[in-house]
Predict the 3D structure of the following.
Amino acid sequence: MKIKLVLLLILISTIGKSQSGRNQTITVEPYMVVRNDAFFKILTIKSNDCYADFIQGFDFQWGYAYKLKIKIKKIKNPPQDASDTDYILLKTISKTKVPDDYQFKMLLDKDLYLGPGEQVSNFESINDSTYTYFDKIEIEIASTLKDEFNKIINEGQVRYGNFIFISPTKIKLIKLD
């Protein structure tokens, strides 16, 4: 009888812990990165300890570094094509604009889907030198890089680019690796 009671108490405490999650302080980079999801690619928030495409209650702005206190909660029986983890903002500890000369690297990849089949482009042309990327950010292409950039769009090349921030909604491609 005592063993059953002890096992029941352990089970109840384990269930309580899995539902409550754990709190963690993270540092969020001022840019997003391309990550592979279930069957497609997404732009995700990059931090020192996790990659999340969404933090509940958090409004990410390009060009700002953040220190956040979040709750990380594992989801029991998540939907088949969804994350098994919820990230919930508890507090914004700091939000700091990066310097104007801050440079970062980001993967430029035309195709949204990982496997064969319908290919949808991550780029949408605004004009001959500006594109949206993943519907998240505008990329301005330096005139000296237009020919190389067009190979990414037209030939499906995947390359890293170096960028600078122009505004919270626009970045500029300054170099291709």
